[in-house]
Amino acid sequence: MMSTSSRAFVDDLALSHLDAAYNLGRWLLGSEQDAADAVHDAYVRAARSSETYAGGNARAWWLAIVRNCCLARLALRNKEKRNVAIDDNPVAAEHWMPRAEADEIEERLDSSRRRQMITVHLRNLPEHFREVLILREIEELSYREIADVLQTPIGTVMSRLARGRALLQKALTDNGTMEIPHGL
User: Fold this and answer.
1) Among its keywords, does the record have Isomerase (predicted)?
2) Per-residue burial over 54-81, b = 16 or more CB atoms within 10 Å of its CB, e = otherwise
3) Burial level of 92, CB count in 10 A (0-12/13-18/19+)?
4) Mean pLDDT across the stretch 109-122?
5) Has residue 16 got a pLDDT over 50?
6) Which of 25, 57, 75, 169 lies 20 to 30 angstroms, CA to CA, from 64?
7) What residue spans of the chain are helical by DSSP H?
8) Phi and psi dihedrals of 57, rounded to 5?
9) Is the pLDDT of residue 5 over 80?
10) Tens-place pLDDT, residues 136-160
């Protein structure tokens, strides 16, 4: 049975980082509904295991649970030999990217085009590079936090981040001489 303080801890944690969890789920699963389901699963899993939380970075602990729920869903998809429902419509996925504060129409169009290009190429990256880029560049987690989420050494995080950035940069430049924007 979960104590009131454990429930409050999980509730606060989930609510505080709900956007990050949902965003991670959308990028990993490619579906808003699946992301919502994975975040719900993560909440239930976190609530059940809150008594075993050993301290440390709570955000990383929460996102690791979300990631594991997403990976479980992906494994189930593969096991059932379903097609991965990746939304190939970059316009629909555009709202996942951080919004620019452009005032001019041309700037907005250019910004929209850039986001679409980044979204398309980011989706085409291998999963282990994509998830590191999302956690670092969009969710702004530290290297240590990413290592905690992925349960991998920090050197691996740094390597994947460098290789992911290089692959994204190459894809963007090959497709129209676009420079990778700072912070995506």
Assistant:
1) no
2) eeeebbbbbbbbbbbbbeebbeeeeeee
3) exposed
4) 81
5) yes
6) 169
7) 4-16, 18-29, 32-49, 58-79, 90-93, 105-124, 127-133, 143-150, 154-174
8) -80, 105
9) no
10) 988 889 999 999 999 999 999 999 9
Q: How far apart are CA 144 and CA 96, in angstroms?
A: 24
Please give the structure tokens belonging to residue 175.
């497709």
Q: How far apart are CA 121 and CA 132, in angstroms?
A: 14
Nearest to 160, CA basis, from 183, 138, 127, 182? 127
> Comparing C-alpha atoms, which of 10, 6, 33 is closest to residue 22?
33
- Cβ atoms of 115 and 97 within 8 Å: the answer is yes
What average pLDDT score do residues 4-25 get? 88
